[in-house]
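DUF1670 domain-containing protein: structure, please.
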Amino acid sequence: PIRGSVKDIGPTSHKAKIVELYIKGYTETQIKRNKEHSLRSIERYIMDFSKVLVLHEKGESFDTIRQIVGLSERVTRDYLSLIEAYSGMKYGERLKEIAETVKAYTPPATFKKTGVIA
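Here you go.
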């Protein structure tokens, strides 16, 4: 067995930590320096989180969100946990900003990794 499966700290746990920093107001560049991650990966994690956020706001189910965005169960669950944890008064506006960004920059035809949602 590998360390990630034994200790349940696989490659997805870092994604939620990176997104959490973004929710808290850190820029992609600051996160890149802090987490020593590529800017491209950070942007992808944020975009995936944003899609989860929008679908969650629309009332989509866990399985529907996971399938539409094309994420693992673990990452989807991590992102939904972040939404719940940061939906309060302090970060609620920040989550709205993040949701608006994905709505503005993601045409519906590219929203799903494996096809088009109806």
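Notes: The first helix runs from residue 3 to 7.
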